[in-house]
Write a structure and sequence with these properties.
Elements: E1 4-10, E2 13-18, E3 21-27, E4 32-38, E5 42-47, E6 50-54, H1 58-70, E7 78-83, H2 88-93, E8 101-106, H3 109-118, H4 120-123, E9 131-135, H5 138-143, E10 149-155, H6 169-178, E11 179-190, H7 195-209, E12 214-221, E13 229-236, H8 247-252, H9 262-267, H10 273-283
Parallel strand pairs: 7-8, 7-10, 8-9, 10-11
Antiparallel strand pairs: 1-2, 3-4, 4-5, 5-6, 11-13, 12-13
Helix pairs in contact: 7-10
């Protein structure tokens, strides 16, 4: 008998992955957590029936969330990561010796527990001495912070259910206050392809534009995410994501990456016409 995991991208579209076996399943206080072993994508983490990562393509998401701001801001030392309980973003951040502290705020301890056990490739640096893990509500955590961080990475689930509060004007205002005078915020913006996702992306972008003086959207191809097309937001008090890119300095670090390069960095901010129009609708 064949076993498939299917995720609905819309009521009329679903993405299916053949499964060898289910490795983990738990209903936590917040959500349903499952980990599957698949022949094509390796281990797959899902939350409430939605794919969060696969071993095959997680590097794309984690590299684009991390290396884009790190190649722009010249002096990142203090970082706040919201969500990202799988550890992939933390893993990429710990590759930078200049970073002194990484505060990770994760709502659900069960996610970290599951990933430590079944996804060690992602969770391998959670015990780095610079990483400080807090469990709880990220909104409450960030309200207590002011002029604290050089970089905030918001690696949340989609803007529905438990993570809805991480896409509000209040939240982005709290991020602005928690950043130092030249700080950067990066967040996942979802897919612009299907209507419901596109409208959520526009709402989020509108709120960020009204909060930060510099706000740009960039893109990546991630096969297992909706439409295989994913967006990220870059918001800053000072630095422009392309004009202030220091490619030579980043390349001098000799970090091996599988997706991100400075050349790709410049290109990922060049958006297709339909997306530019969608963003312009809410920017003015």
């Amino acid at each position: 008998m064949e076993f498939w995991f299917s995720e609905f991208h819309t009521p009329d579209v679903k993405h299916s992955i053949r499964v060898n076996r289910q490795l983990y399943s738990k209903q936590s206080e917040f959500q349903r957590i499952d980990i599957f072993e698949t022949p094509e994508f390796g281990k797959v983490l899902t939350l409430d029936g939605n794919v969060m990562l696969t071993e095959r393509d997680e590097f794309i998401y984690d590299e684009m969330m991390t290396h884009v701001p790190m190649a722009v801001h010249p002096h990142i030392q203090d970082v706040l990561v919201i969500g990202a309980g799988d550890g992939g973003v933390v893993r990429e951040l710990t590759r930078y010796d200049q970073i002194q502290r990484i505060d990770l705020v994760e709502m659900d301890p069960a996610v970290i527990e599951a990933c430590r056990s079944y996804l060690p490739g992602n969770a391998c640096r959670m015990d780095d001495r610079r990483v400080h893990i807090s469990f709880g509500n990220a909104l409450k955590f960030i309200r207590r912070s002011e002029n604290t961080y050089d970089l905030i990475i918001v690696d949340s689930t989609d803007p529905f259910g438990p993570s809805e509060g991480l896409f509000t004007r209040e939240f982005y205002g709290s991020c602005y206050n928690a950043l130092k005078e030249d700080g950067i915020m990066v967040n996942q913006q979802g897919s612009p392809f299907y209507r419901e996702d596109a409208e959520a992306m526009q709402r989020s972008h509108k709120r960020i534009v009204s909060t930060f003086p510099i706000s740009r959207v960039y893109q990546a191809h991630i096969p297992t995410y909706a439409a295989g097309y994913w967006l990220f937001g870059f918001a800053s008090k000072k630095y422009h994501p392309v004009d202030d890119l220091n490619a030579e300095k980043w390349e001098s670090l000799n970090l091996r990456t599988r997706y991100y390069t400075p050349r790709l960095h410049r290109g990922c901010f060049c958006l297709p016409a339909f997306l530019e129009e969608m963003l312009e609708e809410v920017e003015h």
